[in-house]
Design a protein that fits this description.
With about 260 residues, the chain is of the alpha/beta class. The protein has nine helices and nine strands.
Length: about 260
């Protein structure tokens, strides 16, 4: 698949994996719509992706579902449609279940699950009408198994798999593809912005995150998976082996994560 001329909408495009994806998609000749809450950072990414001629900025908070229909209409009008929607906006967690307020769990679900679902539902009708489209969802390896301090994040990512696997089966007849991406440790600021049990920022860089794969390499692997139309892809280093432990030796993985 060539990305030349494709119209790509990326959420969470102001940093990390989203920013790296934007730059690679730009190099591949796409038209970009960049969304996140921080407009200044989006404009910085826009300037590195060819400016307004090839990249447009659309500030967006995926938890504000009442605003999403209008935002989607604006996005669809910018370049005359959306060929690829990348649901990348997300926030993680660093807190024990017993210490986590229910409001924090609700926020984790709103950002990581309901935001992706709501935005997809707004873009989907145009893809169905055109009999063409690709929905890319940035999940996580913890969408396959749970680990300590990430109960709400893991729950939201597990939910993504159930929803988008079902959606894939429904829209296959319309020529629409769905790719679930499961990154492991990627070297971004995700742990700095993680939520503690009271909702405050974790504000610490995890050692695993610091040693993780670069966002640029992660983005390159994601583009390869999208180009090949893969349904699901795991991205990372040795941490991706946990997926196979979960499948074939679940007891071993359970003991490992309990000691982590």
């Amino acid at each position: 698949m060539s990305f030349q001329g494709q119209r790509v909408w990326i959420t969470g495009a102001s940093a990390g994996i989203g920013e790296a994806l934007a730059k690679l998609f730009h190099q591949a000749g796409t038209k970009l719509i960049l969304s996140a809450r921080r407009e200044d950072d989006l404009k910085r990414v826009q300037s590195e992706c060819g400016g307004e001629a090839s990249a447009r900025v659309l500030p967006l908070d995926v938890t504000q579902t009442a605003e999403l229909p209008e935002k989607a209409r604006a996005a669809l009008e910018m370049f005359g449609g959306i060929d690829i929607l990348v649901n990348n906006a997300g926030v993680t967690q660093r807190s024990l279940v017993e210490d986590t307020k229910i409001e924090v769990y609700r926020k984790l679900m709103e950002v990581n699950f309901f935001g992706a679902v709501a935005l997809t539902k707004e873009v989907l009708p145009s893809m169905v009408q055109n009999k063409h489209g690709h929905i890319v969802v940035i999940s996580s390896l913890v969408g396959k198994f749970g680990t300590p301090l990430r109960s709400g994040y893991a729950a939201a990512k597990h939910a993504l798999h159930g929803f988008f696997d079902s959606l894939r089966a429904e829209v296959n007849r319309h020529g629409i593809k769905v790719t679930l991406v499961c990154p492991g440790y990627i070297r971004t600021d995700v742990s700095l912005n993680a939520l503690r049990g009271d909702g405050s920022p974790h504000a610490k860089m995890d050692s695993g995150q610091a040693r993780g794969m670069s966002a640029e390499e992660c983005a390159a692997q994601i583009l390869k998976a999208v180009a090949r139309g893969k349904e699901e892809v795991n991205v990372g280093g040795r941490d991706t082996y946990f997926v196979y432990l979960k499948r074939f030796f679940p007891g071993v993985l359970s003991r490992m994560v309990a000691r982590s």
